[in-house]
Amino acid sequence: MQLRFATNISVEQYIQQEAWRDAKLDQCPLHPEGGCKIARHGTYRRKSPDGAKIARWYCPEGRTTFGMLPDCLCSRLPGTLIEVETVINQIEAASSQEAAANSMRLDISLPGVLRWMRRRLFLIRLSLILLIELLPLLSNNGQETLSSFRSALGVEFVLPHLRELAGPYLDILPPPLGFGPWSQKKYRRKNRFQQQTGPDPP
Ligand SMILES: [Zn+2]
Are residues 59 and 34 in the same domain? Predict the structure, then answer.
């Protein structure tokens, strides 16, 4: 289970300072009343960025492990929220998704880049739509683009700020911003179902 490690440091500082050592968990999320012997359970290493570790706790009663994810890192996707925001900025600024794809990820083919891009775009737009509903502060915004959120909040990169603002709702927001469950399979199944419920062809 992922929990938020509230910190405004950059990923470079996080790695250089080994800031996962500073992560603290005051109470077990499963047993806020205490008495469950929750304890530190080492760290695990992220695949990306290189050198980043995540502090872990384990509750023996709940048989659950908790990882404290710093605000700079993506949940369930490699890399940082700023990297995802940079990709979406390029898509929003380009004349088409294909044009944006041409300037990204030279290591994979165009259909692969488009899938990689659209997955990020889909997940972030979904989070923005949910956040407009959840946070009255953002409801005047009305537009589900990252650039509109950025100018509304007046920051250079808005995703790490949204991780903070969305703190109470992270469990229901999809990754890479939220910690909610998300499975590509589930969405694919749902899409197939929706296609099947359309009118029968003549
Ligand atoms: Zn516990």
Answer: yes
